[in-house]
């Protein structure tokens, strides 16, 4: 089971023993998470894959560069890698500032249908996912980012504050507003689909 | 809908995941680089006797075949794994075949592993540097081929640029280290590096001109900076140890000065193009505008300092004092790079949602969360 202590052991192996497999294990744990985080912030799966790959490449370059300097070693891998992903997405936006965020239907195909539910429940589950995903994309980036980190990736408010360079209070306030905004969007989308 | 229901719905999005085949292939590419660079660091830090080198060589051979065989066998490719076992019994046929492989090809990992072994068993620093500059050239060749085959494969291209820089950087570091202990040997090694610098610059400039990807273009600029520093380091050793240097060295120093001046000219143009009070494009708070203005002003001041130094370096070249000219170039390189990077960053378009400072001062009703518990958990994690 992957725990924070196991992560510390991996970092130790990475820095002290230069064990490549330690980096591989960190990649195995965080690649899906970082992909998901990036996926909701860019326009498609291909961009999410490219940027996720860039995150881990740059993480390794950072490790290489600062192996000899104990003050610059990664202490908290989770915070580091999310923060790096955030910066890489910021750079992505800078280069493609006019691209609109669009969810693509590939996401629906990746969700395994829950086998224990009946067909009606499966359809309902997929519809709910689609609804919330659509509403999420309609939020402004500030709100969307915090919702993703808190309620999809499961990070704590303190961790989110560290990653986003906001105060804890600002994170709490913004999350509260973000959930309200998300709820309004979902109600709007549901009402629109019912009226058709 | 309550917040609780909403949070439950958000959790369903945790099912979104990357393609398993993509995740696995990306892992392989990444770990190939990690293994290669981890071994390079060991080579540079731990000088080995010939017996220890031979043992290390055999260990790597078995490690590689074991790892590749296990991987291939796990993927059900039993026949392929048997072929790999035959590689080292075949007299190196497959190893020779791997020499023409590129990132994404099946034998590319073997190519890197063989290069790694060659570095490990290199009999002297001179031989090692000769290998490093050769491997750097190969990375550039692979980059050209990769760009030709699939211009959009940015992660693989960045990996190659990164590997190229590592080889150049290590060769330059060895040059400095050896020349400090043995000037004659340092001079030989410096010449090896110096001979390649022109070729590297030419190839990188061609790659930059042929790509429309701004990220790769920026990465190539960084590699050019690495090559520039390595070249300056080599020239420094050459002018210090070889009293017969003449017009050829003067030309090289002159070209470096011109390149630095051109970099500053482009940076100045970007800095001049920034609107006053809005140095980075549309920003939302006064505090961000002010800090960008300060940064731009600082960059302009540094640019002026660098230009003064470069003018001084030109005088030294005319006077024939090549040592002083190279020393100035070495000192001014950091300033030039920093000015260029600042100009580039400030000139880029603003980002939607870049809200650093936007929520400052926003206080009010808060959602109830257990911050003390979260803080304790995070401090335990650290």
- Element string of chain B (H = helix, E = strand): HHHHHHHHHHHHHH
The total of beta strands of chain B comes to 0
Biggest interface and residues each: A-B, 76 and 63 residues
In terms of DSSP E residues, the strand content of chain B is: under 5%
Counting DSSP H or I runs of 4 or more residues, the number of helices of chain B is 14
The main β sheet of chain B shows up as: none
Supply the number of helical segments of chain A: 9
Outline type of chain B? flat
Q: Any idea what the radius of gyration of chain B is?
A: 26 Å
How would a textbook summarize the main sheet of chain A?
Answer: none
N-to-C order of helices and strands of chain A: HHHHHHHHH
Describe it for me?
The complex is a heterodimer of chains A (196) and B (382). With 196 residues, chain A is mostly helical. Chain A has nine helices and no strands. Chain A has helices spanning 4-16, 20-39, 45-65, 77-95, 106-110, 119-138, 141-152, 157-164, 168-195. In chain A, helix 2 (20-39) packs antiparallel against helix 3. The termini of chain A are far apart. Residues 98-125 of chain A have low confidence and may be disordered. The model of chain B is unreliable at 74-83, 278-288 and 349-372 (pLDDT under 50). In chain B, helix 7 runs antiparallel to helix 8. Chain B is an all-alpha fold. Chain B starts with a helix and ends with a helix. Chain B is built from 14 helices and no strands. The chains are: A mainly alpha (196), B mainly alpha (382). Chains A and B meet through helix 2, helix 3, helix 4, helix 6 and helix 7 of A and helix 1, helix 2, helix 8 and helix 14 of B.
